[in-house]
Specification:
Strand 2 and strand 3 form a beta hairpin. The chain starts with a strand and ends in a 7-residue tail after the last helix. The protein is an alpha+beta fold and 78 residues long. The longest helix is centred in the last third of the chain and has 7 residues. It has two helices and five strands. Helix content is 14%, strand content 22%. A three-stranded antiparallel sheet has the order 1-2-3, covered by helices on one side.
């Protein structure tokens, strides 16, 4: 598994002064996506709806609305 491409605008394009420590989305060689975001499992785990579950090895990660909206055009439909 490896990173194939960034999905959406880079942190610098979204206004990060350093361009290095901001949320990001990447498409992986197997077709999955990787997300860099703020870890919020403890904060949001109890807020999950009844039909949602998280495995012990999974984490809830928060990215900014702008990060996802600017990635929308790069996310494939299928």
């Amino acid at each position: 598994m490896r990173i194939v491409r960034r999905v959406g605008a880079s942190p610098r394009e979204r206004g990060s002064a350093s361009g290095q420590t901001c949320p990001d989305i990447f498409e992986l060689s197997d077709g999955d996506f990787a997300v860099i975001g703020r870890e919020a499992t403890a904060e949001l785990d109890s807020e999950l709806p009844p039909d949602a579950a998280r495995a012990d090895y999974e984490r809830i990660v928060v990215i900014s609305r702008e990060t996802l909206l600017r990635a929308k055009r790069d996310i494939p439909d299928a």
